Amino acid sequence: MDLPVLNASPAASAAQSGGGCDSHSCGSSDDQLGHLPEHIRAKVHNHPCYSEQAHHYFARMHVAVAPACNIQCHYCNRKYDCSNESRPGVVSEVLTPAQAVKKVMAVAANIPQMTVLGIAGPGDPLANPERTFETFRELSEKAPDIKLCVSTNGLTLPESVEELCKHNIDHVTITINCVDPDVGAKIYPWVFWKNKRVTGREGAAILIEQQQKGLEMLTARGILVKVNSVMIPGINDEHLVEVSKVVKAKGAFLHNVMPLIAEPEHGTFYGLMGQPGPTHEELQKLQDACAGDMNMMRHCRQCRADAVGMLGEDRGQEFTLDKIEAMEIDYPAAMVKRAEVHAQIERELEIKDLARAAKAELVAIQGGKQSAPKTRPVLMAVATKGGGVINEHFGHAGEFLIYEASEFGVRFIGHRKTIPYCEGGDTCGDGESALDVTIRELAGCEVVLCSKVGYEPWGPLEAAGIQPNGEHAMEAIEDAVLAVYAEMGAAGKLDARPVAQQKAA
Amino acid sequence: MAFEIIETCVNCYACEPLCPNQAIYQASPHFLIDPEKCTECIGDYMDAQCSSICPIEGAILDELGRELNPPGSLTGISPAMLAQYQAAVEATYQAALAAKSP
Ligand code: SF4
Ligand code: SF4
Ligand code: SF4
To answer: Which atom of ligand 1 is nearest to the CA of A72?
Structure first.
């Protein structure tokens, strides 16, 4: 498949990142991409959804053109968006294919970092084949520098493979929650199949068969397949280790385990039944268990079906239909500018890769790893706006990136969303309950790194066993995390459990 | 002999392309069935198509005005379960009100 790859020499830079990347300094990309064959790595290198490194620099967007769905999941309320890919309980404005194309071009012209367009809902894209494919068809023609991707529950995937291959789709995401119909019967009450509603185990069996067939057909055609799973404690949590093995054997290149989000107010079956989602710790444990079998992706942020922007941000409000209508877009000119911006980012990433490689070599020569004493791993939360540096105020952060520092280096663990403690102003006056949410979300972290942190939240954070730290503003995240870890080591804080251990949420 | 889509429809488009008679059309505030065209799928399918894919319980009625997908039949959320939740919400709300007024 001939992909409109944006970087000047993807293979070269991918090779560099591979060469320089060892477990010391960039656990994240090593963790996720290091073991992939070269042709796949070249494709996902600098893909904001797949490369942990690139998602600091590049942006993605989704358009909501696909409202219909052909199955029911127990974690979904069909009055809202598909919760396979997006946060439950939000409604995206459904666009016609023509409106969607216009929106994508407007965003691409205004946010040159935008490289990937996804269709993920608000229902199932392949249950809306005309709308989905019409959008792809026009975009491949009018904006050939944008990568296209699609997510699906997989039910009609086999019959869509042929059409998908026509549109330069570089990857497909399938949500696979089980490979056992008995487990499936507890997740999917029905599927619509061959002009009938099929319920229970029988329906789940059909869905599973179609998902697996679709996965095999796509990988046979050389299309990248990512598998998403929703972790539902007590229903499929243990089973997902098996799912991971099966989908890897069939050629999926990444497996992404997402936590179930179920609240009664979402009006879903699980929400009303009081089915709990996993704790951060349970999720990480399962992700680690699955990672033994395949590459895990930890930075998926379950964006909404109409999300626009970088790193958990959503700039969708700047691109509402009436605003787009008023925009004049000179796409050929925008494409030139986009190419320049992408090349610039490429260069920056390359320099970082080289710096990493040099540092790793130095550590290897000094034999730092062997002589290091046994220390316990520590989770740290980081507030960032992107660019791979600590550049966000504590109070403005709508999400934190979680890193684990250990004697083996730094690795990226995931995202935790929260409510910004204060919406502007440097003093951060009253934001009591938002702070409580943040403290709960950061459970398990011992340090929070940000460019600045106000006086008010300092005390409560410390009391919760989370040390606020604003001393590494504008520093590269991994360097800062390592530096703080070293300080903790020097202060003798890494031998035992921390004193003020927080209560598990 | 015709089905009817009522106001609980969430405009998901799922039913529209399936109708063998193009009886379903987009309208505001929700999709509608043209009673002149709807045959209840008789002669085309064993099961009526619109009510077989519609995810919303109660959104489509048969010719006698009965819900084709009654409460609990699609989501597994029984009316009792929903009532229980609503009662809990109401109780919390009342408690909050009582706490506010001296
Ligand atoms: S596939 Fe998506 S839209 Fe369909 S029921 Fe499941 S979560 Fe909802
Ligand atoms: S019952 Fe059949 S014919 Fe009537 S509106 Fe529904 S799909 Fe169309
Ligand atoms: S399937 Fe049901 S909810 Fe969706 S548009 Fe048709 S009647 Fe409305």
So the answer is: 5
**Residue A386 near residue A3 (C-beta atoms within 8 A):** no
Distances (CA, A) of A43 to A33, A47, A150, A253: 11, 8, 16, 11
- Which domain, by its residues, includes B93? 76-102
- Nearest-CA residue of chain B relative to A122? B12
Q: Is residue A359 part of a domain?
A: no
Helix residue ranges, H only, A321-384: 321-326, 331-366, 368-371
> What is the CATH number for A128?
3.20.20.70
Q: Express each pLDDT in A284-325 by its tens digit.
A: 889 888 875 444 445 444 444 555 655 556 677 777 777 877
In angstroms, rounded to a whole number, what is the distance separating the alpha carbons of residues A502 and A445? 9
Residue B34 CB neighbours (<10 A): 13
Contacts 24+ apart (CB under 8 A), A182-187: A183/A235, A183/A236, A183/A239, A184/A208, A186/A74, A186/A235, A186/A236, A187/A73, A187/A74, A187/A75, A187/A232, A187/A235, A187/A236
Question: Which residue, A6, A30, A27, A32, is CA-closest to A19?
Answer: A30
User: Is residue A327 exposed (0-12), middle (13-18) or buried (19+ Cβ within 10 Å)?
Assistant: middle
**Are B20 and B46 in the same domain?**
yes
Do B66 and B86 fall into the same domain?
A: no
In the predicted structure, residue A38 carries a pLDDT above the cut 90? no
Confirm whether A151 is domain-assigned.
yes
CATH assignment at residue B21: 3.30.70.20
Measure the N-to-C terminal CA separation of chain B; round to a whole number of Å: 59
| CB < 8 Å from A in window 6-25 of B | 10-14, 17-18
User: Which pTM was predicted?
Assistant: 0.75
Is the CB of residue A7 less than 8 Å from the CB of residue A346?
yes
Complex ipTM: 0.91
Judgement on whether residues B64 and B81 belong to the same structural domain of the protein: no
Number of domains, chain A = 2
pLDDT tens digits along B51-62: 999 999 999 999
E strands within A107-253? 114-119, 147-152, 169-175, 190-193, 196-199, 224-231
Has residue A22 been placed in a domain? no
In a domain, A147, yes or no: yes
Q: The domain containing residue A499 runs over which residues?
A: 373-504
For residue A479, what are the contacts with CB-CB under 8 A and spacing of at least 6?
none
* A interface test, pick of B52, B54, B81, B82 with most A CB neighbours within 10 Å: B52
Determine whether the interchain pair B14/A123 forms a contact, defined as Cβ–Cβ distance below 8 Å. Answer: yes
Q: Residue length, chain B?
A: 102
| Ligand positioned closest to the Cα atom of A190 | 1
Which residues 246-285 of A are in CB contact (within 8 Å) with B? 264, 267-269, 272-273
Query: Are B55 and B86 within one domain?
Result: no
